[in-house]
Amino acid sequence: MTPVKKRAEGRPILVEKSADTTASIATLRSGAHRALPDDLASDIQQFVESDFAKQYFATHRTGLIFRRTVPVEQMMAWQRVPLASPLLNLPRVLHRDACKIFKVVQRVMGDREREGRAIARMPDPTASASGARDPGVLALLEEERWLLGMGLLHGELRDEIYCQVMKQVNCNPSAESMFKGWQLLCVLVITFPPSKNFETYLRGFLQQRTGTREGRVDIMTKHCLKRLAIVAKKGPRGKPPTIAEIETASDAAFNPSTFGESLDAVFRLQERSYPHLHVPIVLPFLADGILALGGTRAEGLFRVPGDGDAVAALRTRIDRGVYTLDGIDDPHVPASLLKLWLRELREPLVPDELYNECIAYAHDPDACVAVVERLPTVNRRVVLFVVSFLQMFLEERVLAVTKMTSANLALVMAPNLLRCGSESMAVVFTNAQYEQTFVHNLLLHLRCDTIDREYMPKHGLGASLPPSVAQPRTSKSRTRR
Prior knowledge:
Elements: H1 3-8, H2 19-30, H3 38-56, E1 61-62, E2 68-69, H4 72-75, H5 95-108, H6 135-153, H7 158-169, H8 175-188, H9 196-207, H10 217-234, H11 243-250, H12 263-270, H13 282-292, H14 308-319, H15 332-343, H16 352-360, H17 365-373, H18 377-391, H19 396-402, H20 406-417, H21 425-445
Antiparallel strand pairs: 1-2
Helix pairs in contact: 3-9, 5-6, 5-7, 7-8, 8-10, 8-11, 9-10, 13-15, 14-15, 15-20, 17-21, 20-21
Protein name: Rho GTPase activation protein
């Protein structure tokens, strides 16, 4: 029966996953990337390169009298001189921008001195906090942000930017320059994806270098592969990362983010500082922050988004290990970040294996509660924490102010707890109402203090951590100076 007919009949559509899809998801979750034999990997990459080159690489020629075509291998190797024309076939109107971008790539990697008129600065909410930085470092970060903005503004330039950075890390004689190039790639894969045609070429380039330990390239390539899969699914950002976000993303391969990771990885990050906690520290911090900022008196909480720049700044602060609400006075900011943290988990809180059961028995409250009882321990405790926190906003005196009924909360929170694995929009839209019903039943019927004997969620214990605990994480990678 087609999805349209099932939707008309009021029935959910069960999501089936092929064995190949399941295997690929398991590989992505584990962070393991199988390495092919060197000879086979090289042959495959050469085939991909030659096929892509025929269709998309621009023809470059050298020589004054006898003009000869520059082979792709030479074209995609590091060079000190600037580009005279783009690497890929681009519209003529973008040629000058492409060449300017290459100079910025060279400056960011330390292969070229800054010269001429500075690139126009883009408004950055974190700039005021950057005053203590070295002016030269700050200027490079601003240029890098301009480069990212060009990729977001002109979709045709995205593959060109990826290609230019790949070129400059390939056969680079300077270990420091190469390291900064890989840092730039780490920033690119959180900003915008390559085109589908170029994605295979880029993935092959990264996989070929997962065994290169020199300069810690292997760590950064595996990180880029993981982020590439995520950004390819999510799509480009709405606006360029802030300077603080760029710095965080540059070091993310060595200082993993609290966002976009698996629950197991998040617990490994905090096990030394917060060994007594049963849930990730980011949850009680944001939840108590919402209460401390008057969230119970904020109309439309969880529905009205917080200021995007403030949300990004708080996220960067958390990624650096600093858990304070200094400068934040709007409860919508931590509320938006709480939803974002749940939504960006590498795996959904309700595992894919239980998704069909959730939507099939969404109208049965007992069955919904039973699903929570069967969740893995960490997942179950996070669900208990989130649901118990949301239940605080269902009290009549709070509800009268926030106007967020149980149905409204279920509507905005369902996409953060459940994740439909189908790529069909018809399936996604059909199942959305059942996902909301499932969460609605949890809000009304889940008794969070009786499900887990060893864990009882508590809220309102304080948003800021003691100064002795809230210490920022230091970068393990080289500096940009």
